[in-house]
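Might you be able to consider the sequence and fold that I enclose below?
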Amino acid sequence: MSLHMNIEGVGDAIANIRRVADAVGDDAVRDIGLEALEPVAETARELAPVRYGQLRDSIVVIERLPDAPDLYDGRAVFVGPLMAGPFYAGFVEFGTVNMVAQPYLGPAIDMHEAHVFDVLGERLGALIESAAQ
């Protein structure tokens, strides 16, 4: 007994996959990520304790970490204080033996988690749908 199978539309499926891959490239995803994380940075700036403003002013959304090896080949975005910012940023967030924590970034992430995923889902979904048509 032999089995015969005929598959149609493989060429169209491959073409759709290629169009989606082109539409949802690194640049598009990075731009969407930067947009999605900006509210996190704004809230972190509002929550950061201010003595001189250095910590607050160092909080950014950035696609590459300055003065650091690019571990992600430009395929990541970051939110938080710049590495060149105040050395005490982590001490403020997490506290020390001698200082109570004053979290600013963790709560900002928690507050905007749903928004970040909504923006990523909606914008990437729209790119995928438009590319597949």
